[in-house]
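User: Could you check the structure of this?
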Amino acid sequence: MTNLQQLRKGSTPLLILSILNEGPQHGYGIMRAMEQRSEGYFSMTAALLYPALHQMELDGLVSAEWQNTIGNRRKKIYSITPKGKEYLMKDNLEWHRFFDYLFGIIDQQGIKRAQ
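Assistant: Sure, the predicted structure tokens are below.
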């Protein structure tokens, strides 16, 4: 796994919680919002999303409930919990701090960020 892939994997809970902080969503809605908001940079498959959501549910960061839709189809709707909101706030601050220091070091070396 490359360093970038590891960073993306590590940011998954933050990304999911950021989307759920705006309101409950089903898995496909989370994937779509993530892709749209990142202009395609963060494209997540169901094989990656659902294990992350399951773990986050076990950790108490999200809750889930089944809802019936038209045609008696069921879909699982995920919501952020109070513990998830606290995690989001702390993790968001830590990621900002991480990147501020990272780019502070890189920028001192005259390396320019890609636009």
